[in-house]
Amino acid sequence: MTRQFGPDVRALDDVSCTVGAGEVVVLLGLSGSGKSTLLRHVDGLVTPSTGTVTTLGIDVGAASARELRALRKQVGFVFQQFHLVGSMTLLENVCTGALALLRGPRFGLITYPKSIRLRALENLDRVGLADQAFQRADTLSGGQQQRGAVARALMQQPRILLADEPVASLDPESADQVMRLIARISAEDNLTVVCSLHQVELALTWGNRVIGLRSGRVVLDTPTSGLARGEAMSVYAKVAAPAVPLLAKTG
Ligand SMILES: Nc1ncnc2c1ncn2[C@@H]1O[C@H](COP(=O)(O)OP(=O)(O)OP(=O)(O)O)[C@@H](O)[C@H]1O
Ligand SMILES: [Mg+2]
């Protein structure tokens, strides 16, 4: 598939890939290489200019609004900026992850069905934050907030988790924790994960497979097992050569 923005920007150029259930696929590539655009195709936030994107059997370019809503219930999204509501408790933030499954708005924790509140607590426990359930979200560390955002995404019981630079705002230790968590949940739930990262080390440690993008083209698509760091770094090289790149600091 190809995605053009206006006459000049070809954000994705003849991209073809298939992600299997339960895989953890990491997208690597320089800023502007098309990672976010590719992620946004998966749940139809963006649709291809030519070619097709099929997610869970749905052709997102041809899907009706209703089909897309149904699809998006099965696709969780985690962002670089965690997007928790700071004034709410962590638990209530996690409960909001179930809103798509409920009817009508909710005002306050107590207005959620007990089953949802219990499931939110279970998900907080899974991400190691049961003790912080009643803490205001804006008093949590960045790593805790992102783990909370993962718990919130899990409320949808998604089949696919998309993560756009989920650890870009975190210190290395918290970043590793969040990626470890995402990989663990993928393995436990057979959850398919597509995640963009700027850290090659994290990609190699926690991903099953790396897709490298350069100017919208796939320049690398390979399992991480046996993949050398230098080879992964070549995604960032201006010319395809064994890279000892200036960008090593991002690793
Ligand atoms: N809605 C849009 N309208 C116009 N151009 C867009 C739009 N979305 C993305 N682009 C362009 O498509 C290209 C790919 O952008 P994209 O955001 O996918 O890159 P990225 O790999 O996620 O970069 P970063 O690492 O900075 O997040 C860029 O040239 C960008 O300017
Ligand atoms: Mg991006």
What does this entry look like structurally?
This protein has 8 helices and 10 strands. The protein is α/β, with parallel strands linked by helices. It folds into 2 domains: 1-74 and 158-251, Rossmann fold; 84-157, no CATH class. Strand 9 and strand 10 form a beta hairpin. Helix 4 (114-126) crosses helix 5. The longest helix has 18 residues, at 172-189. It is globular. Adenosine-5'-triphosphate binds next to strand 2 and helix 1.
Describe the secondary structure blueprint for this structure.
Elements: E1 3-5, E2 9-12, E3 24-28, H1 35-42, E4 54-55, E5 58-59, H2 65-73, E6 75-78, H3 90-96, H4 114-126, H5 142-154, E7 160-164, H6 172-189, E8 192-196, H7 200-206, E9 209-214, E10 217-223, H8 229-233
Parallel strand pairs: 3-8, 3-9, 6-7, 7-8
Antiparallel strand pairs: 1-2, 4-5, 9-10
Helix pairs in contact: 3-4, 3-5, 4-5, 5-6
Bound molecules: adenosine-5'-triphosphate (ATP) and magnesium ion (MG).
Concise account of the structure shown:
The protein is of the alpha/beta class and 251 residues long. The protein is 32% helix and 17% strand. It has helices at 35-42, 65-73, 90-96, 114-126, 142-154, 172-189, 200-206, 229-233; strands at 3-5, 9-12, 24-28, 54-55, 58-59, 75-78, 160-164, 192-196, 209-214, 217-223.
Order of secondary-structure elements: EEEHEEHEHHHEHEHEEH
Q: How helix-rich are the residues, as a percent range? A: 25-40%
Determine the CATH superfamily of the largest domain. P-loop containing nucleotide triphosphate hydrolases
Shape verdict? globular
User: How many domains, as an integer?
Assistant: 2
- What is the CATH-assigned architecture of the largest domain? 3-Layer(aba) Sandwich
Q: Could you give the count of β-strands?
A: 10
Distance between the termini: 30 Å
Query: Uncertain segments of ≥5 residues (pLDDT<50)?
Result: none
Overall SS class: alpha/beta
What CATH calls the topology of the largest domain is: Rossmann fold
Arithmetic mean of pLDDT = 94
Strand order of the largest sheet: 6-7-8-3-9-10
Q: How would a textbook summarize the main sheet?
A: 6 strands, mixed
CATH class of the largest domain, please? Alpha Beta
GO molecular function, one term: ABC-type phosphonate transporter activity
Protein name: Phosphonate ABC transporter ATP-binding protein
Organism: Nocardia mangyaensis
Pfam families: ABC_tran
